[in-house]
Design a protein that fits this description.
The protein is built from five helices and no strands. The chain is an all-alpha fold.
């Protein structure tokens, strides 16, 4: 009986965590807006989970821009490929945040886990 009460309480607290960090988790996949979650919701694990993934995507996009400027022909080709995957992963992360899920994005999620804040 006590275990059931603990499980219900854990589910309620998890729902509260998701509700409190929802907005910042969703906007984390829009370019540099992931920084807002680090500033305003740094103690919310839901928003931080998505903000870390958003940060990895933002840094990847920034690197893609530099590559396109440094290597004119090959760089533009690489830029388009990298940006395509960044957009796909951003949309994927955006919708998982909208659904209130902790979805680890392929490749991005593993890197994001290593970020310590």
């Amino acid at each position: 009986m006590v275990e059931e009460a603990e499980i219900i309480q854990d589910n309620e607290s998890e729902e509260e965590i998701i509700r409190e960090g929802f907005f910042f988790a969703v906007i984390s996949y829009v370019s540099f807006l992931c920084i807002l979650a680090f500033l305003f919701k740094k103690n919310n694990k839901f928003s931080l989970f998505h903000a870390k993934q958003g940060l990895v995507l933002f840094v990847t996009e920034t690197i893609a821009v530099f590559i396109s400027k440094i290597f004119p022909l090959l760089g533009i080709f690489l830029y388009k490929i990298i940006m395509f995957f960044c957009i796909v992963f951003s949309v994927w992360g955006f919708f998982s945040a909208l659904m209130g899920k902790y979805k680890k994005l392929p490749l991005i999620g593993n890197i994001a886990e290593k970020i310590i804040i």
